[in-house]
Amino acid sequence: MISIIIPTFNESKNITVLVERVKASLFQPYELIIVDDASPDGTGAIAERLALDHPIKIVHRKAKLGLASAVLEGFKVASGELFCVIDSDLSHPPEIIPLLIKDLEKQRADIIIASRFIKGSCVEFWPKIRLWGTNVAMLTVAPLTRVKDPMSGFFILKSKVVEDAELIPRGFKILLEILVKAKYKKAVEYPFVFIDRVYGSSKLNLGTYLIFIVQLFDLYLWKIKSIL
């Protein structure tokens, strides 16, 4: 079974569409784990209604605690042998989840990443400032991993990868944390078309970038200590 972790904050216009698209895409046992950070727009209540007709577990949190910590909360209650993390804003197409699973098995990998920056990928409708910021961030993490898109929010991994990993739940870049700190033999990437959100607003702000800088500092220290 695959457990699909969906962190949400103010995604009332997107969550129903996402759940229905997942249902239409998967023909194998799955569960959805919606981790909602007390969304004032009623996302949590919509998730409760969806759970009446879909295999959904809901984690209601008391405040906006961040995407990375939401993903780790989802891991704790997940029952599948595979964990999938996907954004709730419809920028990640759930239709390719079966293709990701197939490629994960074909390549005998432990992690497969839906990558925005390999041949065959495309990023649509991104503002130039965001694309520039992402490119700069990619340069700062390049020494930490050989993965082309280590900050993707759409990936699948075997549950054993994160069993004993000392992950710090902060910011948005939980995949980067996993790639540096978790134990796995092989990570591969799969191309896809990333489409910027239509409804709702981005959660990125100055605080997000400051947290990322702190995360980078910690990960470089971790990397150095692991080499010594």
Task: Please provide a written account of the structure.
There is one protein chain. With 228 residues, the protein is an alpha/beta fold. The protein is built from seven helices and nine strands. The protein is 37% helix and 19% strand. Strand 2 (30-36), helix 2 and strand 3 form a beta-alpha-beta unit. The radius of gyration is 17 Å and the shape is globular. The chain starts with a strand and ends with a helix.
Order of helices and strands: EHEHEHEHEEHEHEEH
Measured on Cα atoms, how large is the radius of gyration?
17 Å
The backbone outline, from C-alpha atoms, is: globular
Unreliable spans: none
List the helices and strands and how they pair.
Elements: E1 2-8, H1 15-25, E2 30-36, H2 43-50, E3 56-60, H3 67-77, E4 82-85, H4 97-106, E5 111-115, E6 122-124, H5 128-141, E7 155-158, H6 174-181, E8 187-191, E9 193-195, H7 206-227
Parallel strand pairs: 1-2, 1-4, 2-3, 5-8, 6-9
Antiparallel strand pairs: 4-7, 5-7
Task: Give a nutshell description of this structure.
The chain is an alpha/beta fold and 228 residues long.
